[in-house]
User: Fold these one by one.
Assistant:
Number 1:
Amino acid sequence: MVNKGRESKPHIGIYGRRNNGKSSLINSLAGQDIAIVSDHPGTTTDPVKKSFEITGFGPVILVDTAGIDDSGELGLKRVDRTLGTLEIIDMALLVVTDNSWGKYEDELIKQFDDHDLPYIVIHSKSDIQQPDAEFQHTILRLTGSPLFEFSSADKRNYEELISLIRTTIPEHSFRTPSLLGDLITYGDIVILITPIDIEAPAGRLILPQMQAIRDILDNEAVAIVLKEREVDSFLKKTGVKPALAITDSQVFVKADSSIPHDIPLTSFSIMLARFKGDFDNYLKGTPKISELKDGDRVLLLESCTHHVSCDDIGRTKIPRWITAFTGKKIEYDVVAGLDALSRPVTDYSLVIQCGGCMITRKQLYNRLQPAIRAGVPVTNYGMAIAYVQGIYDRAIAPFIKGKANEDTYL
């Protein structure tokens, strides 16, 4: 599986049957030979990411995939990997040729629609055989959009293709919204409460803390980083009144007591929940913790892999806190990374997603959709912790004010 990870560039997937000209199309867009071209079908065996700048368009990641018509035991595995890339791309280019369309293309456009992905159907090798009128009419009928004629050999309609990609790809793929830009202004002071415990990486801060610091600086504000035991002394000695305080969720109770209640307080995890999670569904799902019953099963989704400590937040602390809050006998499962679930999502009464600092909004959104479609409540690590510790309303308050005016990025 190709992982989009922390790449912020738009991801464009190239799909089609073997030997339809996918790699030639990539080379044409890149203006260089970055994909192997061969007359032998199946040259591209696994999805490969290629980062470059399309002239007149900008930096992108093209995802080159194996032919959707691959066969045999290994071929079917390659097809599965090809379809797996739909979780991380922002738009698709479906390459056809020889006026050919069949079950493979039907399945692809169904998958595109299921993933809410915009796509362009490109008739490649048009220098050898042009698309006929009947085929063009068929594509328009099936997809609702005209067939695009292209040739890598003579680069016909190249500029038109670049323009079409630019207008087709979702705007959110280019925009990098601010984590805190709607909460802070020039010169504001933001306190970041960052415990250094067994789970903190040696010699550095965790990614959400670093992201918050960068975003604060980008917004011309001031970041003050403190351990939880230093907060009271700092506020007393300096008399500073911050515009916002952000805490690690694990010390929410301590932060709540240290930060005066006229100062907004939230957590790094909730900050990420609003930034890249399904915040509206988190708001609906979090109170469902109070409705958990004996025998219910809760799924915790860690969207990264890390060293597991004896007091791990997802595997130990959250289950302990929820069990203590509800007083119920609850079963907990943890799935790390983007691995498949070991049981149907409908077996769960609640899904708790981590902040998702290591994955993209698109990946996190797709990760949650099976549960949401099945009617399973979803929440976020930080929101769940705040709820069971009795400070939920305060923790979400900074993001509730004016929420109706926020942009939607998915």
Number 2:
Amino acid sequence: MEDIVALKVKLKSGECRYLMTWGRIQDSVDPEPLETLMAEKISFGVEIESVTLCKTLQEASKEPLFLKLFYIFTNKNSVWRKL
């Protein structure tokens, strides 16, 4: 499970959104490369203030669809694992 991480995306409006992805893609310890990559690549159609790696998945667990997405990430038969 340590391969799945959550990122908190703070928008300029003050609203927060969360993303999940597999692991710390560029560095196993330093979160900055992953935060930078996600800040450059994601778009919600609004300006992003910051992207920060969550210390635990618990931080994002109250969001709608979190459990469904977590199941998809961890299910060995998931379509995402076949890509």
Number 3:
Amino acid sequence: MVPQLSVFLQNKAGKIAAITRALHEAGVDIRALSIADTTDFGILRMLVDDISTAKEALTDQHCIIKINDVVIVAVPDVPGALSNVLELMAGAQIDIEYMYSLFNRGREDAYMVFRVSDEARLIALLENNGIRIIDPEEIGLH
């Protein structure tokens, strides 16, 4: 499992720019991100190369943050591969809270980030079906 940083922010022009600027100034590299919003606030979810430094930089900016675990899965970059993974998860009754893709950087597989109801069951399911789970170090996360 990989730690993910969630930042809760107001739906206001410039908020995401301020967050990414703070991370840039702290020397943090964003490897993946997803933005979800409601009418009142947004959630910026990120995988970063140095979560401790990112947390410190965003705390200094008075951001409300949360860290939780996600699973990164290597999905062959061919038609139907993601569907196959999702069908396995559905068959095992593993609920997906959300998912998004990771910046690939020229690899043959697409990398998908999953937040699910039961990480341990997901990992066992994928391993039993020969689907590779990405180690954080493999993509420069520590």
Number 4:
Amino acid sequence: MSAARNPSEKIKVFVVDDHAVLRRGLAQLIEADGGMVFCGEAASAPEALEKMEKAPPDVAVVDISLRDSSGIDLIKDIKIRWPETAVLVLSMHDESFYAERVLRAGARGYVTKGEASEKVIEGIRRILRGEVYVSDKVTAKMLGKFVKGAAGSKDFSMDALSDRELEVFELLGQGLSTNQIAQRLHLSVKTIDTHRENIKRKLNIANASELLQRAIQWVRYERGG
């Protein structure tokens, strides 16, 4: 929780999502709560950082899938620039897979789109109290990993991919070429090729054709198809 925020003041909430309808819905939800105020919105990471620079919020509600930018990278940037701003992720992605990644990036909670709107308000209040807000299922999974320890956990699974490798993998599954991914992520083609090779090694993939097939399957799974 921000030490600079007066507890008697309303909680300032900033929303980052590339869907305008969702941002408007969240704005109404936040304004309907007597203890919160909707202080701004953005559709992309660069826009969010520019606006938040002028007036850092108490809480940023962030989607991890943003148009032409990475929500996970945005979380890391927010925590570097404004350590006292708490971040709550609101995403359509599978919480059981992404929650640990966003917590490592600096977020304090994860709410899945489609859950009751009250979960967003509850999540905001909980993370401002210094708590971590995730589902019981994710809590049990994380505790299980802790008890089990790291030994034997580095198998050929999606968990083995770094955040950047996962991002490249998803963009491949969305049909982007290596050149297009390099342009999207502002990286060199050589760097993307290196990520592709690392992905193949970590997922035990034999060739480029199998890599593309697996990436497409992953994106379909993520979209519930």
